[in-house]
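pasting input
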Amino acid sequence: MSDQGLFIVLSAPSGAGKSSICRRLLAACPEIEFSVSYTSRTPRPNEVNGKDYHFISREDFQRRIDQGEFVEWIENYGHFYGTSGKAMHEVLGKGKDLLLDIEPRGAKEIKKKFEDGIFVFVLPPSLDELLNRLKKRGHESPEAIKTRFTQAESELKEVLWYDYTVFNEDLETAARELIAIYRAEKCKTNRLHGKIDRFFKSC
Ligand code: 5GP
């Protein structure tokens, strides 16, 4: 019996430090693959096509929506973002684990469509601190910061339906908590039926 891979969905408002936490999880657990989303937004400096996102045009994105390629997709700040269903099934079908960095609307869609999966929300220490962090990033106009903050405030309420909450007061502690969540979930008996079966057959 082969075991399906496990997927982790990580959501957080902009400025909560999600990308740094994701990087630490992937570095500590190289067996996890990162789910590379499709987006119609343009790449930022340092972003690599095929690694951070698959950067495609709006027309290409729309065509893929029409062909049912996305297991979930949203329009955010005027740009499309979506997760390829085929890519997700391929990774999980091989028994590999997958990390999805997606916002709550998409996360909810995934929760509806898949039985399994771990849903983790990253919260900043406080709303004031979130605003400070958004301002410190320095690459956005005051209007853009205001828009992100307003969206963040409404996204934060979604935390209540997630399985786990990680407060990012300190990056290293938050990353350690996420790694601990993943490791504990991997040891759940109901995820190990294949391995347990093989164990008994080997006696
Ligand atoms: P950014 O443009 O800053 O990279 O991402 C903006 C937001 O879109 C983030 O909250 C990120 O988690 C979310 N996002 C990235 N890819 C996807 C995706 O495939 N689906 C959904 N629903 N959200 C995504």
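fyi Residues 171-186 form the longest helix (16 residues).
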